[in-house]
Amino acid sequence: MAKKKSFLKRHKKKILVAFAVFILLLAIYIPYIISGLPSLEDLENPKAELATKVYSIDGEVLDQFFIKNRTQVSLNQLPPHLINALIATEDKNFKNHWGVDLPRFFRAMVKNIVTLRLREGASTITQQLSRNLYDLKIERKKIHDKITRKFREFITAFKIETNYTKDEILEMYFNVAYFGRSAYGVSAASQIYFGKLPTGLTLSESALLVGLLKGPANYDPINYPDRATNRRNTVLSQMVKYDYLTEEEAEKAKDDEIQIRSSESEGTVGIAPHFVEYVRQQLEQKAEQYGFDIYRDGLSIYTTLDSRMQRYANRAVEEHLAEYQPLFNKQWKWDQNREVLVKTIDLSIKTSDAYRKAKTKEQRDSIARSLRHDKAFIDTVKRISQRIEVGFVAIDHRSGGIVALVGGSNFRNFKYGLNHVTQIYRQAGSTFKPFIYTVAIDNGYPPSYEILNQPVTLVMADGKRWTPGNFDDSFGGKYTIRDGLKLSVNLVAVRAIMEIAPIQQVIEYSARMGIKSKLPPYESLSLGTGEVQPLELITAFSVFANDGILVQPISILRIEDKDENIIEENQPERKEVLSKETAYIITSILEDAVNRGTGTRVRNFFHLPAAGKTGTTQEYADAWFVGFTPKLTAGVWIGFDNKSVHFTNYNGQGGRAAAPVWGKFMNYVYDDKSIGLPLEFFIQPEGVVKETICAETKGLATEYCPTTEEEIFNRKYLPNKCTLHTSSHWEDSKESRDTINF
Q1: Is 622 exposed, middle or buried (0-12, 13-18, 19+ CB in 10 A)?
Q2: Model confidence over 187-218: pLDDT tens digits?
Q3: Distance of alpha carbon 36 from alpha carbon 135, whole angstroms
Q4: Which of 11, 122, 594, 678 could form a disulfide with 104 if both were Cys (CB 3.0 to 4.6 A apart)?
Q5: Coil, strand, or helix at residue 433?
Q6: How far lies 218's CA from each of 190, 469, 472, in Å?
Q7: Distance, CA of 122 to CA of 148 (rounded, Å)
Q8: Are 471 and 423 in contact (CB under 8 A)?
Q9: Domains of the chain
Q10: Alpha helices, DSSP H only, in 295-407?
Q11: C-alpha–C-alpha distance, residues 505 and 469, integer Å
């Protein structure tokens, strides 16, 4: 009987074929693994995506731009217990292996292959770093993809260990690890969760952050505080197990209550979201020029905004709207404005997501019918349409820096929205009148020059007749230029542009002073019918405050890369566009407007030297106040996004609807000693001759009238505090004779 052949001999061909296939697959698989590994250059120069930070001029971080919120931090800035917590929890043999803990690795791989599930991780700190720092090019969906990832981590970790010290590996790890809530790196995480730098982390806080690494979503301390606490305690126990802590230290840390940073709206959107978005738009335009990526390159953007002034601007707006919005809601009646409501609802339907995504006319008609009968939808449309909007900006007119900006009433809730300082164009109303009188002064007419306050009828370009009138429908007599502007008399302004300040000259002066919008070349321009951007109107007013010098407003002072190299440094454009004598005379008249004219409501809040002008457009659609102190120029626009909605009575006047915001802001800013704005006066240049008339004697000021700067200030700005010359009454009356020595 023949011997039975052995298994190997009987299956020799099959075994050889199988071995050949295995070698072939291995020959294909190894290059596949290698193809997803980082290059030597990548290993030597790892580039993590870093968040760009936007700073205020007083050093506060206003916001960040990032895809991955990450800020670089060095290892020596981290508390030792944070480092120990990481090693004890994630990789107890970190200091002894070469990137991979081989016993753990092979044990884990066997379990994963047997169970066909990737349950056992066994990744060292270095392997985790390789996964976080480099794109290992796997989809992580199927088991073979996950096994491939492990091999790539294995090889990359070994290469990292040969290129970097253990301390360098730890530093890189802490800068790239993901801690949840868009926080990449421990610096971002400590700010988001605890509102502090990593150097200030307690033992309990460090343990909590390390605990998050296992699963940021599962152990989120805000959503799952109990899970986060238990995980923190596990980390502390691991530190005891590997002799990084004593039992007593761990128990004390476990007793610490987790104090997570409050998720207040300011922390969510920042104090100046519209300003930051304005900065971001400028950076996007510069990105191509300089070749940077604002979301990945870790830039530092130093801006002109003062965080203290910004908070005061926010406060002034919120306080005013808290009073004014309910007042308007009581006055605005939708049943008396049915046509406006129908148009508003139709527009809201056509701009809704459901309507725009509908593919057929039948679907759109069906959606429209449904929404017209949807009470919740209609109530939302009403609420949004009657929301009072605001645009406020303050500029240091000497430096040109924007120090505060509120772009809308919704800045607490929405990070990005319409910026009502830089993105709207509205009629300027009476705030445009100073530019008319500026031309008149430059044409040689003194403030004491008188103009008729009489009706006039004009034929406009379209053939229609225009008969302007004063706000109170009164007319008669004459007004000086000073009183015409101080009291904002419409008929005087119209006659001024007809008689002493030609339209084309007014347009030219306006452009020279910073108003870039195209203005209508008609007499109606005298009443501010031209639409302007709030920022450019306020910039033009700053020329009066700045002795005739136009300083173009800026928001970005300096851009630095992650290594603190300066990419760009900005200096504002400065240009003399008006004589300082003319600038002062208009300033003097605008002081009168605040002290005894249409802007007197400012004095309910602010009692230092100030000048400014109110503005109100037809049907109370837009309310303005633009004014300045010797240091700051600021302006307020109040109105509605829906132009068919408007104030219904005198509450829509600029003096009532806008001036209080300006007054509150200036009061808060000048009262803050940390800001330290000095008491300054508008300085009369030598070229202006000003003779003060005593109201009692009708003659020149004598020893019985206050003549010193201090006495005039006390009488003019602090009437309740004035104790000097109580027997006499002094005022800069319309009888003052102001002239320029040309």
Answers
A1: buried
A2: 889 988 998 889 999 999 999 999 999 888 88
A3: 8
A4: 122
A5: helix
A6: 18, 69, 67
A7: 15
A8: no
A9: 16-53+70-269 (1.10.3810.10), 333-385 (no CATH), 389-553+572-671 (3.40.710.10), 686-742 (no CATH)
A10: 307-331, 338-350, 353-357, 361-372, 375-385
A11: 24
Residues 659-716: tens digit of each pLDDT: 999 999 999 999 999 999 999 999 999 888 765 545 444 444 444 444 445 555 554 4
Model confidence, pTM: 0.75
In whole angstroms, how far apart are CA 580 and each of 241, 459, 513, 683? 77, 37, 13, 10
Residue matched to tokens 């004035």 = 722
Residue with tokens 């830039």: 299
What is the crossing angle of helices 143-163 and 12-35, to 10°?
60
Residue with tokens 């770093």: 129
Q: In which region does residue 547 sit, left (phi positive, over 0), alpha (psi from -120 to 50) or beta (all else)?
A: left
Q: Which of 478, 481, 491 is nearest to 434 (CA)?
A: 481
Q: Provide the residue count of the chain.
A: 742
Strand partners, 410: none
- Which pLDDT band, with edges at 50, 70 and 90, does 733 fall under? very low
Q: What residues contact residue 432 under an 8 Å CB cut-off, 6+ apart? A: 510, 525, 526, 527, 528, 530, 532, 537, 615
Can you say whether residue 461 is alpha, beta or left, with left for phi > 0 and alpha for psi between -120 and 50 degrees?
Answer: alpha
- Cβ(552)–Cβ(514) below 8 Å: yes
Say how far apart CA 90 and CA 214 lie, in whole Å: 9
Quickly count: other Cβ atoms within 10 Å of residue 291's Cβ: 9
The Cβ of residue 720 has, within 10 Å, a number of other Cβ atoms equal to: 5
Sequential DSSP letters for 660-691: HHHHHHHHHHHH-TTT-PPP--PPPPTTEEEE
For residue 325, what are its two tokens? 């919005």
